[in-house]
What we know:
By secondary structure, the protein is an all-alpha fold. The chain has one domain (3-85). It has helices spanning 3-18, 23-31, 36-50, 56-85. Helix 1 (3-18) packs across helix 4 (56-85). The chain is elongated and about 50 Å long. The termini are far apart.
Amino acid sequence: xxxxxxxxxxxxxxxxxxxxxxxxxxxxxxxxxxxxxxxxxxxxxxxxxxxxxxxxxxxxxxxxxxxxxxxxxxxxxxxxxxxxxxxxx
Length: 89
């Protein structure tokens, strides 16, 4: 499945979920940031990936980070959209 198709599927999957968020939860999702030590690990893996130096285990770990990042990014966009549509809630 191509990245664009997978992203569209994930988007459709998360749309109903995002509507379950109350205002406080939507704000927490929108404000979510990964921990600094996790970001440092992602950055290190990205650098190794760019250099073609990832082991099989590192590649699997990096792909898991990328997939989780996509999931979180789409959910954050949906939470922000819900907040924009219901600013007084």
